[in-house]
């Protein structure tokens, strides 16, 4: 698998747009699109930003390692934000937040099943 295919796979697994990735790492959507279709190669600084954004090693991005994650759990930017919020909560706030998320997911599951 080449670098463009890996970038596309990482992006699609997170269900995010090229625009979203490009905005986060500070390039245009067009430039990012060229990376995914292998028309251009990102400069080193951009490779570092992509690896950090997708939480993978540089080796994985450039086509070396078959293992994508730097650790077992690949964490998206949204997950990092949620974890940061949780770190500032007390035990009771965490418990309430977990219950709210659980209730929300159950409701979504019911809606999707019915319709």
Characterize the structure shown:
The chain is mostly helical. 68% of the residues lie in helices and 0% in strands. The chain contains 7 helices and no strands. The protein has helices at residues 3-13, 18-25, 29-36, 44-54, 58-62, 77-87, 91-114. Helix 2 crosses helix 3 (29-36). The longest helix has 24 residues, at 91-114. The N and C termini lie far apart (37 Å).
Tell me the structural class.
mainly alpha
What is the element string, with H for helices and E for strands?
Answer: HHHHHHH
Percent in helix: 55-70%
> How large is the radius of gyration?
17 Å
Q: Please mark out the parts with pLDDT under 50 across 5 or more consecutive residues, or reply none.
A: none
Strand content is under 5%
Mean pLDDT reading: 85
Distance between the termini: 37 Å
Number of helices: 7
Number of strands: 0
**Biggest sheet details:** none
Shape: elongated
Task: State the main characteristics.
single chain, elongated, 115 residues, mainly alpha, 7 helices
């Amino acid at each position: 698998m080449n670098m463009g295919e890996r970038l596309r796979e990482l992006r699609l697994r997170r269900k995010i747009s090229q625009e979203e990735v490009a905005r986060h790492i500070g390039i245009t959507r067009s430039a990012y699109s060229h990376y995914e279709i292998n028309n251009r190669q990102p400069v080193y600084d951009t490779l570092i930003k992509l690896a950090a954004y997708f939480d993978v090693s540089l080796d994985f991005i450039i086509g070396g390692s078959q293992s994508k994650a730097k650790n077992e759990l690949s964490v998206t930017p949204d997950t990092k934000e949620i974890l940061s919020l949780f770190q500032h909560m007390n035990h009771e706030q965490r418990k309430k937040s977990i219950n709210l998320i659980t209730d929300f997911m159950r409701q979504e599951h019911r809606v999707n099943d019915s319709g």
